[in-house]
Amino acid sequence: MRHAVDLLVLSVSLAAHAGVLHQNGPLVTSPTGGTGSIVGQPISNCDGFTVPGSTFVFSTTGVAATVATDTSLAEDFEVPAEGWDLDTLTVYAFQTSQTTASVTQVRVNLWTETPFSAGSPGAPAEIPQPVLAQSLVLPAGPGTFVCHRQSVTSTATLRPVFAYTVSLDGLPDGGRLGPGRYWIEWSCAGATSPSANVFVPLVSPRAARASHNARQRNALDGSATSPRVWFEGREGYVAGSSEGRPFELPFVLAGTALTPCPADLDGNRTVDAGDIGSLLLVFGACDAGCAGDLDGSGQVDAGDIGSLLLAFGVCP
Ligand SMILES: [Ca+2]
Ligand SMILES: [Ca+2]
Ligand SMILES: [Ca+2]
Q1: Cα of 204 to ligand 3 centre, how many Å?
Q2: What pTM did the predictor assign?
Q3: Which residues have C-beta under 5 Å from ligand 2, the single-atom ion?
Q4: Ligand nearest to the CA of 306
Q5: pLDDT tens across 199-226, in order?
Q6: Distance between CA 214 and CA 73 in Å, rounded?
Q7: Under a CB-based contact definition with an 8 Å cutoff, are residues 138 and 164 in contact?
C-alpha cells in the first residue's frame, strides 16, 4: 500500500511538468461567429489574398495532407537548450462534406533539416532525409471539433475542422529532442467517400504569426499525376505570374521541457555508472565550472563523486 501511494505521488509530480511546448496557431478567428445552421459556433475565416495583376481573391481553406495521394505537410519548431521530451502532436484537419470527425490515421515523421526532395526548388546538393525511414502510423483517436473553416467572408459554411492528438513516443529516444531546429511532418488518412482528400487549415488570422514557411509535399504544378516533391507552400502561386505568399499551419506539441542535469556528463538523461566513468576521466584540477566539477570547487575529486551519487537516476 505504501508503495502504491509513492507511485501516485511520483506520477503527479511528473504530470506537473508536462504541458504545451509549442503552439503554432491560432486557427479560430471568431469563437461565436457562425450564422445560419451553425449560429454561435466558432469559425475560422481565411485571410483573403489578391493575386498580383488580377482582382481574384485567393481564399485558401486548406492544403492537402492525404496519405492516399502521397501528400504531406511540415512545419518547423525550435527546441531550447535543455531539450524536450515530446508526448503528443495535435493537428487540425477537415474532409470535404464530412460533418463528423473522419480522420482515422495520422502519419508523422521528423526532420532535423528543412525538407527538400530531388526536384524541389532550391534543393541543396545533398538531399536531407527524415529521421525515420518509415513514418509513424498512428491512430487518430476520436477527434475534437474546433471550428468551421470558411472563405474570407462566409460565416455559415459547414466545413468542420477537428483536432487529432497522436502520441510521439514512437520517435527515437521516446521523443526526446536535444536543442535545435526541427520540422514535424504529418499526413492523414480518413473517410474515402465522397473524397479521400484531407485538408489542413492555415494559421488564421495570418498576422498572428511571423516567418511564414510551411512546407508541402505535393505536385509542383498541382496535377494529381505529377511527382511529389517538397517545396515551400505558397497560396496564390501561379507559375510565371505570381509568387504567391507563404503561410503557417497550426499544430501543437505537448510534453515535458527538460531541466538541467549537470551530473549527466554523457547526456543520456540518466545519471549512472557511465557518468562516474566520465567523471574519473577528468579527475583532478580544472577551471571552475568545468564538466565534472559538480560542486564548483575548482577540481574534480571525491566530493563530486558524492554529488553525482546524490543525483543518481533518471534526470528530472
Ligand atoms: Ca513555421
Ligand atoms: Ca548519463
Ligand atoms: Ca569539485
Answers
A1: 53
A2: 0.86
A3: 264, 266, 268, 270, 275
A4: 3
A5: 999 999 999 999 999 999 999 988 889 9
A6: 7
A7: no
